[in-house]
């Protein structure tokens, strides 16, 4: 668990090179399938988003050469990966490790924000709703990926394996009892 | 008797994390305007509340339900239903501030324990005893305007248990008596359960300089290496009388960890942690710290060193009004 | 509709304070609430002038009430509150601490700093002896309508904030002293130089708030000038004017004319602007999107840009 001061691992710059040439269309399709799987397993996520369940979010891992556009689309989410800044009503930017650590409950969103490890723009209320919804869902992204099957699972599982091998990023949900 | 750690939970996941981390008591609210942390994506629906109470009880912890906004004229039934449903969930107590609601609860649910919310700003023994006599209030959450000797004096004059904030956000104004937020945004803690609401917050960053606006009013402007405060009105940076700065309060957060022994001597029953809007990770970490502190105190050991700085707002801490010089 | 003058929120010299009530004896107002609302440390400076002011006003046919403090914490303040209740005059409670000190069955009035947001609270206070309630300025017109209807059934008079800087917050800390680098206990009466509070501006130099010791007020002067018909229709029977350092008696005359139908809202606002041309006005709590909002049409520097 991060204590003060926290060092958030940054995605090694050299490793982003292959990602720059990674085809984004299959990755988008995979992530969309993946997010729908999560949506199916965690319907409460969308209830918590409430009025913001059609807000388009730009998730910007600042140490990676692309952004993710997340459209919750009322429970049938779509994810588009693109190069460039991307457009959405709310933008959440930070190192990949911070974004994933947030999802996995390893970091506190407010603390990351106060320390400016996380930058938010646009509709603050929507961002808060997403943060709170995700915090409650106790997601484990790796587990969800491993649960995926079929052709769309492949690019993601490859990416996951790659990330896990090469970085210190928090890719799975730490056990609540042991992270402290 | 070991001091009771009263811990916030904005979500069922946070409730479970807090219970596992050793909280004696959890406080939470329904997902609507009936409580003072009516933030997007937070709080409990009816079935989550029932499950949360059952989970806490199974682990020997208590649940308090905050219904601490002031009901809107014409719509009191929403708040009454919240009290009915808290009782039906087997909650251990409700935390109330409004006179009408206290009366409703006392009349309709006499066996449901009533705590007086900090939103009632009951700051002296006379008014606390009045709430006890009129509505059978068993515990009061003291407003954050009192020093430790004043708290001791209150406890000497009342049978009502006292609960004090020890960690988290800090209101400078007497709570429940403040309409700064609705003046700037139309939404207030008293009526809507939100202060300086996220829906009216706007951040913009230009060349490392971060502006934070609330309802169009610029509340903060920080440089590249400074931490980013949330634009809470009373902690904003303003100009007056030829001076510029945090005229009401610095963007600090309360940490009274070191004062726990003094608070115990002052007769305080329970220590409250602010932050239903914070993540389960935060909640668990803070609870662990405070639980360790009260257990150490009970066993006659020295307090463990604090480790909570980074989790707080703007990463600076204050002991607030507990030390008289704060005023 | 009646006109009530609320307690002076600021720290004035005893002479200035007493002069206000001399003037008010001849002003077209029906009721005056006086005494110290904000800070118990100010009271010794004019306490001995209160009895004269009260009798002057009573002789002039006004109804008079004494206010409690807005936030009672210290021993001295509790004692003051007890004494207030024992004085036998009508008390306006602005902190519930005053309530248990009132003799059982005593009639009292409730000021704008007590949270009366709904019918349940109103009914409870009425059962306890409240005869008159000045509603919190934060309430929207829709709530005022519901409460005034409920109050009519209970025989309680409803009053609404009519004009003046809005009390937005009260603290255990003295912001004025803090600004001058002093503690509250050694404040050296930092607030006495600002007869209407000290203007607080945002980083963009927008006027926003006013500092008044432990109290925080709006920069803008709330005015219900455009809502008189709606308030009357709702059953509101009194309008509260909050004292300011300049042109206050003129203001009383203006609002009297407005209530009596001798001028309309626009004319009243125009005349208010003549009294104090730099003052920003607001009426957003009643019908706007936010408190500082102003529906009056004429462009002004207040509110959001």
Protein topology:
The complex is a heterotrimer of chains A (about 180), B (about 325) and C (about 300).
Chain A: H1 16-20, H2 24-41, H3 44-49, E1 57-61, E2 67-71, E3 78-82, E4 90-94, H4 96-103, H5 109-114, E5 119-122, H6 124-137, H7 141-147, H8 153-166
Parallel strand pairs in A: 1-4
Antiparallel strand pairs in A: 1-2, 2-3, 4-5
Helix pairs in contact in A: 2-8
Chain B: E1 4-8, H1 12-21, E2 25-28, H2 46-58, E3 62-67, H3 76-88, E4 93-96, H4 99-108, E5 113-116, H5 125-135, E6 139-141, H6 148-156, E7 161-168, H7 180-185, H8 189-192, E8 201-206, E9 209-214, E10 217-222, E11 238-240, E12 243-245, E13 253-255, H9 260-265, E14 270-273, H10 280-299, E15 317-318
Parallel strand pairs in B: 1-2, 1-14, 2-3, 3-4, 4-5, 5-6, 6-7, 7-14, 13-15
Antiparallel strand pairs in B: 7-13, 8-9, 9-10, 11-12
Helix pairs in contact in B: 1-2, 1-10, 3-4
Chain C: E1 2-5, H1 14-25, E2 31-34, H2 50-59, E3 63-67, H3 75-86, E4 91-93, E5 108-110, H4 119-128, E6 130-134, H5 141-154, E7 157-170, H6 175-179, E8 198-201, E9 207-212, E10 215-223, H7 228-234, E11 238-241, H8 248-259, H9 265-275, E12 281-282, H10 284-287
Parallel strand pairs in C: 1-2, 1-11, 2-3, 3-4, 4-5, 5-6, 6-7, 7-11, 10-12
Antiparallel strand pairs in C: 7-10, 8-9, 9-10
Helix pairs in contact in C: 1-2, 4-5, 8-9
Structural notes for this entry:
The complex is a heterotrimer of chains A (180), B (327) and C (305). With 180 residues, chain A is an alpha+beta fold. Chain A is built from eight helices and five strands; from the N terminus they run αααββββααβααα. Chain A has a single domain, classed as 2-Layer Sandwich (Nonspecific Lipid-transfer Protein, Chain A). Residues 1-5 and 176-180 of chain A have low confidence and may be disordered. Chain B folds into two domains: 4-170 and 252-326, TIM Barrel (Alpha-Beta Barrel); 180-245, no CATH class. Chain B has ten helices and 15 strands. In chain B, α1 (12-21) links the parallel β1 and β2. In chain B, α1 (12-21) runs parallel beside α2 (46-58), α1 runs parallel beside α10 and α3 (76-88) packs across α4 (99-108). Chain B is globular. Chain C is α/β, with parallel strands linked by helices and 305 residues long. The interface between A and B is large, with 46 and 43 residues.
